[in-house]
């Protein structure tokens, strides 16, 4: 690479969530809540419900439709304004799939073989996994780069995929001798970049965990939320007087981080307030805070889900705005690659 300064791209934020199963507190704190904050910062924000990613593992068509609409309702209920942010489902904008194919031809087998998410998801059955599951990170790179997005807010688990996105942009630019795709910045910030399971502080909270007790779903009612927090696994010690005291106490640390993130304060401040107290005092306070923050989102999601035609209409409008950005970028990509486009219709 030359030492010439990199071209500066105007800031644009892009992120995506899969419509596979419901939203968890991990998605909310690690992703959605921060998407809303980015929208408030006045930078252009593009948010995508990545249905093409979801079908890399089997999805019942009826359930996929439902999960897509429910996720759209979740975005809006959490504070994404479809008039200010662009909110749409991926499959309505063909540029994603087309650019992903080009990136299939840029990314190397060895790069994808290193992806830990594929190894985790495919497990011992890699031979039976779909080709789509293996190529998934190339589609993710296409999602981002079809918009020339510069900043991508995600949870910690997506860091490796964003590094691959950077590698794809750099290799494409280098191979074709252009400065066309931006090298994106991962935005992995806050106290809740990795919300852990309520049953096991070493595992990520995930919608695919077989135990429903391990997670808080955005569709859980107040009783369920309170009950899950009460039963969350902890150790017998009271909360420490300083943050360092959480060392080696994964479950306690997780609950402190969740509290901090829900309350928009630093973990130090949580320790300042609750240090020295036992979980008998801390858990009810956390449950109350979680219910206070999540119940209105839950209620709004239910209300929005009563008018599915309206959700579809909003997604369609978002897709048209998304297409208007992505299509010219794809047209230039075809030109750079040498793909002739001479049809008139
Ligand atoms: P997914 O549900 O896998 O499509 O993830 C959507 C977004 O939520 C991504 O930005 C993830 O990094 C984020 N996310 C998922 N689970 C967690 C978690 N347990 N803690 C923090 N962020 C998460
Ligand atoms: N792979 C992400 C996840 O599983 C979802 C995703 C797809 C995404 N495309 C994206 C996130 C583009 C950020 C940007 O969580």
Task: Write up this protein.
The structure is a single chain. The chain has 345 residues and is mainly alpha-helical. It folds into 2 domains: 12-188 and 307-337, Rossmann fold, CATH 3.40.50; 212-303, Tyrosyl-Transfer RNA Synthetase, CATH 1.10.240.10. The protein is 53% helix and 6% strand. The protein contains 13 helices and 5 strands. Helix 9 (222-231) runs antiparallel to helix 12 (279-305). The protein starts with 11 loop residues before the first strand and ends in an 8-residue tail after the last helix. The structure holds adenosine monophosphate (AMP) and tryptophan (TRP). Adenosine monophosphate binds at residues 17-18, 26-27, 30-31, 154-155, 157-158, 192-195, 204-205. The site of adenosine monophosphate has 16 residues, from helix 1.
What is the approximate shape? globular
The small molecules bound here are: adenosine monophosphate, tryptophan
Q: Order of helices and strands, N to C?
A: EHEHHEHHHHEHEHHHHH
First-to-last CA distance: 40 Å
Determine the CATH superfamily of the largest domain: HUPs
The total beta strand count reads 5
- Spatial order of the strands forming the largest sheet: 1-2-3
Helix content estimate: 40-55%
Percent strand equals 5-15%
Q: What's the alpha carbon Rg, rounded to whole Å?
A: 21 Å
